[in-house]
Design brief:
36% of the residues lie in helices and 21% in strands. The chain is of the alpha+beta class. The chain has an eight-stranded mixed sheet with strand order 1-8-7-4-5-6-2-3, with helices on one face. The relative contact order is 0.23.
């Protein structure tokens, strides 16, 4: 009976997403799930920078404001356990690269309520930039899976697309980002 009660209590209290995210974090810790890195770093698909964004503070911007930089773009939601699982590693990666003027991080919340995303980010202590879409998601960024992460090089070419969670804070991915930022 207790075995059935625990999942029910977690679900009714809303903690099921958090607990599931923590369990999936353990999987990421093993290093088994990592993004595939393209060796050519630039022969991908040209992206469309016409993506209107709005910050959690209500400031409007556009993906085009980051043209000429390497963009780490992650689509996530507060109700998504794999998103929650990978965010601490993304935060650590962001901390390593936040002073690099050639690399920018854009975390795009797919939550309908910006306050929910803001409260989540504040509660977790994440400092990476978080935005919401201020319009439709372009076809190139359409995915039925979240989280989905893209890396766009300085020329606007899509060089990484990873559907599902991954640990991005690995030495190989950090080296990859540094190399793409230097090209």
């Amino acid at each position: 009976m207790i075995i059935l009660a625990i999942p029910l209590v977690l679900y009714l209290t809303g903690w099921h997403t958090e607990v599931s995210g923590r369990l999936q974090q353990a999987i990421l810790w093993t290093g088994l799930i990592q993004p595939e890195i393209k060796a050519d770093k630039g022969k991908g698909i040209q992206i469309n920078y016409d993506v209107p964004l709005i910050s959690l503070d209500g400031d409007s911007t556009n993906l085009g404001a980051y043209k000429g930089k390497v963009i780490f773009l992650n689509f996530w939601a507060t109700w998504c356990p794999p998103c929650i699982a990978e965010m601490p590693n993304i935060q650590s990666l962001y901390e390593r690269f936040k002073s690099n003027k050639n690399i920018t991080f854009l975390m795009i919340s797919l939550d309908e309520d910006p306050d929910k995303a803001r409260k989540f980010i504040e509660r977790k202590g994440f400092t990476f930039p978080v935005y919401l879409l201020n319009g439709r998601r372009p076809a190139i960024f359409q995915s039925s899976t979240i989280p989905t992460t893209y890396v766009i090089n300085k020329s606007g070419m899509l060089v990484v697309e990873k559907q599902g969670m991954a640990n991005y804070n690995t030495s190989s991915f950090r080296t990859f980002l540094k190399n793409v930022a230097q090209d």
